[in-house]
Design brief:
Layout (H helix, E strand, L loop, with lengths): L1 H22 L5 E6 L2 H17 L4 E5 L8 H12 L4 E9 L3 H11 L4 E7 L3 H4 L5 E5 L1 H14 L4 E6 L1 H4 L2 H17 L2 E6 L8 H20 L3 E5 L5 H11 L15 H5 L11 H14 L7 E2 L4 H17 L8 H12 L4 E4 L6 E5 L3 E2 L6
Parallel strand pairs: 1-2, 1-3, 3-4, 4-5, 5-11, 6-7, 6-8
Antiparallel strand pairs: 9-12, 10-11
Length: 371
């Protein structure tokens, strides 16, 4: 009788064990690598969302803030994820310099691992052949759309902050040139200002302090009808803060998003209930901007591009690993990303055969387009 009971218990344990594997433990894992909150909060919050959405499936890592000086550490983080045989895909957002080297190193040992890159920093012809999929806002197209938006908001001049490292990126340099050409067509003065590189001497604090001090100088020189743009994520909050104080114009961030710089600059708390609910966040930001008398002077995309790159990157990777999605089918990828964004999107492929996908979303102007 005792022996029979043991056999029954053993059988139950076996059944429950199988059930727990099938119901609880994921069949595979996905590695997610993002910046920290200080370098790119939206992509980090996107990682938090997918960790909660897929318990046990996501392994999240953050790369160093000073990634330019710590590329070996960054590459080691990615190769350590790949050392886990359960990892079948790795989503990197943003794809900072060193990403191509990391992918090549991993693919030598694990050619089966799928790499999805959000906001790749390395040039399209370099990243496209090694990454399985890349997602990025359409920067060349934004070279026209952002000045057009600024003009619509009443800008007479357009100021572009950047630094040599960013201007060495083909997409960002091309966008800057397109912006200058578009400004000439629209009759706006184009101003380029070199700002400190946040990964250089002085770090992010020095770059942020420069923005806070320079915006008032530029407004004093060109007047309040000047639109400001910066290529760096860490500069967005001080830039919005300074523009609000000066009464100037802010059309869009480098990585357009309601949560990129606006909450911090406005002193607006994003509660747990609001997190990820972009319509609610947009309404809260809109109310603050209207209250400050800045209607029609501030704008952005209605959804966070960096947050979307992480969340959509994981979703696309998961479906691809499960053989439910062909990542070479741009229309299929667009459908998944658009459903997550909740707004219409315009996708285009960088090259005829690659999977470097650029997308565009129409901006909203606070105080005018928000209901």
């Amino acid at each position: 009788m005792f022996k029979k009971s043991l056999l029954v218990i053993a059988a139950l344990i076996l059944v429950l064990g199988v059930a727990s594997v099938s119901l609880g433990a994921p069949a595979f894992k996905i590695g997610v690598v993002t910046g920290t909150v200080s370098q790119g909060e939206d992509e980090y919050r996107g990682a938090e969302f997918v960790v909660a959405k897929y318990p046990g499936m996501i392994e999240h890592r953050t790369y160093p803030d000073n990634f330019m000086a710590e590329q070996e550490t960054y590459i080691a983080q990615i190769t350590s994820l790949a050392a886990d045989p359960a990892i079948k895909a790795i989503v990197i957002n943003q794809g900072v310099p060193g990403t191509v080297a990391a992918i090549r190193k991993v693919k030598q040992l694990r050619p089966d691992i799928l790499f999805v890159i959000g906001e790749p920093h390395e040039d399209p012809p370099v990243i496209d052949p090694v990454a399985d999929l890349s997602l990025i806002p359409n920067n060349p197209a934004r070279g026209q759309s952002i000045p057009q938006l600024a003009k619509k908001m009443g800008a007479k001049a357009f100021l572009h902050y950047s630094f040599p490292r960013h201007m060495s990126y083909a997409d960002l340099a091309a966008r800057r040139d397109i912006m200058e050409q578009e400004c000439k067509k629209l009759g706006m003065q184009f101003v380029f200002v070199n700002a400190p590189d946040p990964t250089g001497e002085g770090g992010l604090p020095a770059a942020q302090q420069f923005i806070l001090e320079d915006v008032p100088r530029q407004v004093a020189k060109y007047g309040k009808d000047i639109a400001f743009f910066s290529t760096n994520c860490g500069m967005q909050e001080p830039l919005i803060t300074a523009v609000l104080k000066a009464g100037a114009i802010f059309p869009e961030q480098c990585c357009p998003s309601p949560t990129h710089g606006y909450p911090g600059a406005l002193g607006l708390e994003i509660t747990e209930q609001m997190a990820g609910n972009f319509p609610a966040i947009v309404k809260a930001i809109n109310a603050e901007i209207v209250k400050r008398g800045m209607s029609g002077r501030m704008a952005t995309w209605p959804v966070a591009s960096s947050y979307l790159n992480t969340v959509a990157g994981v979703e696309v990777a998961k479906l691809a690993v499960e053989k439910k999605l062909n990542i070479k089918d741009m229309a299929a990828v667009e459908k998944v990303v658009e459903q997550l964004a909740g707004v219409p999107m315009d996708f285009e492929r960088h090259s005829a055969t690659g999977c470097y996908y650029r997308y565009l979303i129409s901006s909203i102007i606070f105080g005018k387009d928000v209901k």
